[in-house]
Specification:
Helix content is 74%, strand content 0%. It is mainly α.
C-alpha cells in the first residue's frame, strides 16, 4: 500500500509540473507570434536601419579618404579628414546610444520573451573591446529571466560604446602632422570603426528582437520616437516603467 501512496504523490507532482511548464500545450509558440508581427515591425525598423547604414558608410568613406591622403603625403588634408571622421563618429554613436535608451524605455511593455544575443570577443578587433567583452561577456550566463538578461545586454552595449568612444577620442587627440604617427593613428581608428560598426549592428538586432515582442499599439509610439530620432535627434523623456 505504501508504494501506491508514493506512486500517487509522484503522479500528482508530475501533473503539476506539466501544467506549470506548459508541456503538451498546443498554444502558438512565442517564435510564431513574433513572426506574425514581422509585417508590423519592418516599417518601424527599416528606416532606422537604413539611417545607421548610411552613417556607417559616411564614416567608412571619410576614413578611407584619410588613408589616401596620408599615403600621398598630404598630412594636413589627412588630419582634416580625421576631424570629419570624428564628427561623424559622434553622430553615429549618439544615434546608437539613443536607440539603446529607447529599447530600455519600452522593454517593460514587451509581452513575449525577448531573446538576447551574447557579445563575442572574436567579433571585435581593438584591444579595448576584446578585453571588455571577455571580462563582461560571462555575466549574463547567470541571469535566467529573459527580460532582465536582455536589459543587461543593452546596458553592456551602452557601456561598450562609451568606453570605445573615450578611447577613440583619446587617440584622435594625438593626431598631428607627423606622417608616421598619423599612420599609426589611422590604423587604430580603423580598428575602432570596425568595433563601432559591430556594436551598431548588435543594437539594431536587439531593437528588432524587442520590436517583435511588443504589442501593436506600442509599436506606433515607438515608430514616432524613432522618426524623431532620425529627423531631429530627439528622444522623449523616460516615463515610469509599466508593471
Amino acid at each position: 500500500m505504501v508504494w501506491l501512496w508514493e506512486g500517487g504523490i509522484l503522479l500528482v507532482v508530475a501533473l503539476g509540473l506539466r501544467r506549470v511548464l506548459h508541456m503538451g500545450c498546443h498554444d502558438i509558440s512565442t517564435d510564431a507570434l513574433a513572426r506574425r508581427r514581422t509585417p508590423q515591425v519592418e516599417p518601424v525598423y527599416r528606416p532606422v536601419a537604413s539611417e545607421i547604414e548610411a552613417r556607417s558608410t559616411i564614416l567608412a568613406v571619410s576614413l578611407n579618404d584619410a588613408f589616401e591622403e596620408q599615403k600621398a603625403g598630404e598630412f594636413e588634408a589627412a588630419c582634416c579628414m580625421v576631424s570629419l571622421f570624428a564628427s561623424e563618429w559622434d553622430r553615429l554613436t549618439g544615434l546608437v546610444q539613443d536607440l539603446q535608451q529607447l529599447a530600455l524605455k519600452y522593454l517593460p511593455a514587451v509581452d513575449l520573451p525577448v531573446p538576447a544575443r551574447n557579445l563575442d570577443a572574436g567579433h571585435f578587433r581593438s584591444g579595448t573591446m576584446i578585453e571588455f567583452v571577455r571580462f563582461h561577456g560571462f555575466v549574463d550566463q547567470f541571469v535566467f529571466r529573459p527580460k532582465l538578461r536582455f536589459q543587461l545586454h543593452l546596458r553592456l552595449q551602452r557601456q561598450a560604446i562609451a568606453m570605445l568612444s573615450e578611447e577613440f577620442h583619446r587617440t584622435c587627440s594625438r593626431t598631428d602632422g607627423d606622417g608616421e604617427l598619423l599612420g599609426y593613428t589611422l590604423t587604430q581608428l580603423d580598428l575602432y570603426f570596425h568595433d563601432l560598426d559591430r556594436l551598431a549592428k548588435e543594437t539594431l538586432l536587439a531593437l528588432r528582437a524587442e520590436l517583435s515582442c511588443l504589442p501593436g499599439y506600442v509599436l506606433a509610439d515607438v515608430n514616432v520616437e524613432i522618426q524623431d530620432l532620425i529627423n531631429h535627434g530627439v528622444l522623449k523623456p523616460l516615463v515610469p516603467a509599466a508593471r
